[in-house]
Design goal:
- Helices cover 40% and strands 14% of the residues.
- The chain is of the alpha/beta class and 353 residues long.
- The chain has a six-stranded mixed sheet, with helices on both faces.
- Bound molecules: pyridoxal-5'-phosphate (PLP).
């Protein structure tokens, strides 16, 4: 049994980790493309697949970036890492720091952090620093912290994060055997859309794909700086992972949209929760609210016939639904309470027909 697994091993020749550097890995990546049967349309030839990133080791795509960022930090002698986070970055940073035997400091906004994510950061032994401000306020602080204290920043402004995350695009092409026509994904801090575009471009330039997809960036209506064309001071959405008003990878994300001929769209909280429920009930896929914005966006575009016949479409489901049990339970029906008798349980079954 070898320990050599994970995306750095798989895509080593395309990643800038120096030879001889230790690989800090939890066997991230290699997530499935699941065909969305209820959104694919045999008549129109449209094929829709979810890239289910919730199946990474800590339950979100952040692990792809974190394996690179933490391996690099350790290689450069770091003893501590820091990030601002709406939740998933802190969960991932905490786990990879634990793996590496170094310290993680995570700065989170007050309230508004899904309980599963907080549990992860705490359980992995990170020092959790809760500030009174929102994610953007935390980001402004941690960006300057490497000048103030011996810590390495592992938010997606760390270039090694995007390097790791670009491998998701490689996997899509490796799995389909070609590039998809469209790629819908949630946009918060905008690192991931930038990373996918980098990955698709690299594969096209190397001749491993003969085309690049059109990138469609999906935001929540209450946190949609790309639709406004400017930062949003008080972002608000149930999709806490994309509750970000001042995206750090603004220029890269805009370039991805323009160069790919794509666009940005926004879905409101009702549409996001409806898409999350739809995926859970119709496809058996449980993603977190922020992930569902990609499918909410696709559903809107399909209904206005913006996707041509014969297209292959990918939606990235960025994180697992178990991250945010409170939001899931709040939108579900209560259990039916009965006594412990055959009669009562049977009558529930027979009545439900
Ligand atoms: C981080 C995150 C996003 C947003 O990704 P960005 O790279 O910040 O645009 C979306 N969904 C989930 C579940 C996330 O954890």
């Amino acid at each position: 049994m070898t320990e050599a697994s994970g995306l750095i091993v798989r895509y080593r020749d395309r990643l800038p980790l120096p030879a001889g550097a230790a690989i800090i890995s939890l066997s991230e990546g290699d997530t499935p493309l699941v065909r969305l049967q209820s959104l694919s349309d045999a008549r129109r030839g449209i094929e829709v697949f979810a890239k289910f990133e919730g199946l990474n080791p800590t339950g979100s795509f952040k692990d792809r970036g974190m394996t690179m960022a933490v391996s690099m930090a350790v290689h450069q002698g770091a003893r501590a890492i820091i990030c601002a986070s709406t939740g998933n970055t802190s969960a991932s940073a905490a786990a990879y720091a634990a793996r590496a035997g170094i310290t993680a400091f995570v700065v989170i906004p007050e309230g508004k952090i899904a309980r599963g994510k907080l549990a992860q950061a705490m359980m992995h032994g990170a020092t959790v620093i809760q500030i009174t401000g929102n994610f953007d306020a935390g980001m402004a602080i941690v960006k300057k912290m490497p000048d103030e204290a011996p810590v390495t920043l592992v938010n997606s402004v760390n270039p090694f994060r995007l390097q790791g995350q670009k491998t998701a695009a490689f996997e899509v092409v490796d799995c389909l055997g070609r590039a998809p026509n469209y790629h819908f994904l949630p946009v918060g801090n905008a690192g991931n859309i930038s990373a996918y575009w980098m990955g698709y471009c690299e594969y096209a330039e190397s001749g491993l794909a003969n085309a690049r997809p059109i990138m469609v960036g999906c935001q929540a209506t209450g946190a949609a700086p790309f639709l406004r064309g400017a930062a949003v001071a008080q972002p608000e959405t149930v999709a806490t992972a994309i509750r970000i008003g001042n995206p750090q990878s603004w220029d890269l994300a805009l370039a991805a949209q323009r160069e790919s001929g794509g666009w940005f769209l926004a879905a409101d909280d009702d549409a996001i929760l409806a898409a999350q429920k739809y995926l859970a009930e119709n496809e058996g896929l449980f993603c977190e609210p922020a992930s569902a914005v990609s499918v909410a966006g696709l559903r809107a575009e399909l209904s206005r016939s913006a996707i041509p016949d014969g297209a292959t479409v990918i939606c990235t489901l960025t994180g697992h639904g178990l991250k945010d049990p409170d939001t899931a339970i709040a939108q579900s029906t209560e259990p039916i309470r009965v006594g412990s008798t055959m009669d009562e349980v049977r009558s529930v079954i027979l009545d439900s027909g």
